[in-house]
Amino acid sequence: MRIGNYFGIPLKVNPFFILLLAVAFVYGRLGEALLLFAIVLWHESFHILMAKAYRLHVTDIELLPFGGVTRLEALLQLNPELEWLVAIVGPISNGLLVFFAYGLMPYLDVDLKWFDFFVQANVGMAAFNLIPALPLDGGRVLRSLLAKGRGFKDATRVAAILGQVLSIVFVGFGAYLAFLGQLQGLMYVFAGVMLFLAARQEQKNASYIFMRYLTHKKQELRLKRVLVAREIVATVETSLGEVLQHVQPPCYHLIWILDLEGKVIGFISEIDLIAALFEHGLAHKVGAVQMHRI
């Protein structure tokens, strides 16, 4: 549900997040819930700033019961180093708040109870997001590392499975607490279910990212009817990552492939290149890609 804009970006709130606020109000903890809301926005703001620094378009922000999600209209998966940077600044931002809190504490008249809650909330959010499981920031960092050698699809599968395993642990722990009569156990169960669904969705989305890219390229060609082409020459031993460094949007690219003696043996299109990247990763050799032989 959209509730407004944040720096010109649509800000959405998951219905379960509103339910969380309602429960907090009933139990007299609305102040803490609103402070968490502010901390989540601060966390997501750093994702946005890093994305803007690399001229990536942010489509929207959604607040979830266990945090937030900043969605980008960009194929970050083609550049694992960039996905790593955009992801890691979130937990770092929470660390900065803890640093500032302790630095300013001697000069501010703050209730120690609120100070402790503020620090614990930021440490908890940073630690939770550093867990290497999708859809958490740590999962995106893990995917970016795995994608270099295993391809985006397989890297997403591994990180998403870890996310689902983590969610099952949350549900089990929450059920145990509830069995002992501790109501906060229900929050662990709730967070676990939400995390499981989000991790499963990440795994499903992996199959559609290349299709989205392919559809975009076809629409662009159909609308413009003519695209400026740019040619790249690579040998059979060149890695896909090395070729990708020379791709310059908005041109359409054709990659001529030469054997080690300099003879042209075929070519691949930009779409072939992206498909191979998603399937095999940056280290895969151009010569191993199915090419159009001449």
Question: How many domains, as an integer?
Answer: 2
Strand order of the largest sheet: 1-2-3-4
Q: From the helix content, strand content and strand pairing, which structural class follows?
A: alpha/beta
Radius of gyration: 23 Å
Work out the number of β strands: 8
Give the strand content.
Answer: 15-25%
User: Distance N terminus to C terminus?
Assistant: 53 Å
Q: Please trace the helix and strand order, writing H or E for each element.
A: EEHHEEHHHHHEHEEHE
Count of separate DSSP helical elements:
9
Basic shape:
elongated
Oligomer: single chain
How confident overall, as mean pLDDT? 86
Contiguous low-pLDDT stretches (5 residues minimum) are: none
Share of residues in helices: 55-70%
The biggest sheet, with number of strands, parallel, antiparallel or mixed sense and barrel status, is:
4 strands, mixed
Characterization of the model:
A 4-stranded mixed beta sheet has the order 1-2-3-4. 61% of the residues lie in helices and 15% in strands. The N and C termini lie far apart (53 Å). It is built from 9 helices and 8 strands. It has 2 domains: 2-216, no CATH class; 227-293, CBS-domain, CATH 3.10.580.10. The longest helix is centred in the last third of the chain and has 41 residues, at 184-224. The protein is α/β, with parallel strands linked by helices and 294 residues long. β3 and β4 form a beta hairpin. It is elongated, with a radius of gyration of 23 Å.
Short description:
With 294 residues, the chain is of the alpha/beta class.
